[in-house]
Amino acid sequence: MIIKLDLAIVDPEEIQNNLERPCCNGKQMHECHTHFLTGNLKNQLRDGIASDTQGTVAQVIAELAKFDSCRSFMMDDVVIHSLVKNLSAQNSLLLTQSCRALANLCYDFGKPTTYASYYL
After folding, report:
1. Which residue, among 61, 55, 66, 62, has the nearest Cα to 20 in the 3D structure?
2. Cα(25)–Cα(23) distance, rounded to whole angstroms?
3. Which one-letter DSSP state was computed for residue 115?
4. What sign has the CA pseudo-torsion 42, 70, 107, 94?
5. By C-alpha distance, which of 12, 5, 76, 70 is closest to 41?
6. How is the chain split among helix, strand and coil, in percent rounded to 5?
7. What does the pLDDT read at residue 100?
8. How confident is the model over 38-71, as pLDDT tens digits?
9. Which of 50-54, 85-89, 93-97 has the lowest mean pLDDT?
């Protein structure tokens, strides 16, 4: 069973709690490439970042990118370019969350990373 992320969730703590819950084989949700980190999730985020829920989706991406296991999964041309495009947004939620998402994707919490340098 593939698990879909509820993109209507806007509470970062609730997102974090959902990502840290157990999934399978002793892994947490954010580590599971069988049920969570799948092509379906990537498509859901790609579609969402181009919709009227962009701010919420950018926030979800920012929360996902806090986890090392999700960071490389999130490196995607469509997602990265959409987030960069959002840096000129007039909507403060979209702008703030896009900045957070890009920062979390680019930084490895303690040491610089090259994950996103290819895209930026």
Report:
1. 66
2. 7
3. T
4. positive
5. 5
6. 55, 5, 40
7. 92
8. 777 777 777 777 777 788 888 888 888 888 878 8
9. 50-54
- Residues 56 and 11: beta-carbon distance below 8 Å: no
3-state secondary structure of 4: coil
pLDDT given for residue 55 in this prediction: 83
Structural tokens at position 22: 């157990």
How far, in Å, CA of 97 to CA of 63, rounded?
9
> Does the predicted model carry a pTM greater than 0.85?
no
Averaged pLDDT score across all residues of the chain: 76
The answer to whether the beta carbons of residues 55 and 91 sit under 8 Å apart is yes
Question: With b meaning 16 or more CB within 10 Å and e meaning fewer, what string describes 39-71?
Answer: eebeebbbebbeeebbbbbbbbbbbbbbbebbb
